[in-house]
């Protein structure tokens, strides 16, 4: 798995600091987010690409959207997967929109690539 991650990290589309609500204690923790063509990773340190705290496969994301009403915090958005919902917070609304757009765009590209691969087998 480590080799796949290292290979995947050669395809970084966006990276930067966001806060993520912890699943157990519901506290907000600063994490370095890295978006690749297939996965959204979180790490404890900036550009320290080992021991990710989360690995979210883009193919498992059902929705990504703003959720300020749900969290009662500005600049928050959520990522829904079958297993869990991830709550994230950026420093400002522009950064939030850029992250939502980048993740959404990566999801579409991945879906199109998968469909194209499926068509190749028909």
From TrEMBL:
<dbReference type="Pfam" id="PF00169">
    <property type="entry name" value="PH"/>
</dbReference>
<feature type="domain" description="PH">
    <location>
        <begin position="11"/>
        <end position="108"/>
    </location>
</feature>
<protein>
    <recommendedName>
        <fullName>PH domain-containing protein</fullName>
    </recommendedName>
</protein>
<dbReference type="InterPro" id="IPR001849">
    <property type="entry name" value="PH_domain"/>
</dbReference>
<dbReference type="InterPro" id="IPR051707">
    <property type="entry name" value="PI-Interact_SigTrans_Reg"/>
</dbReference>
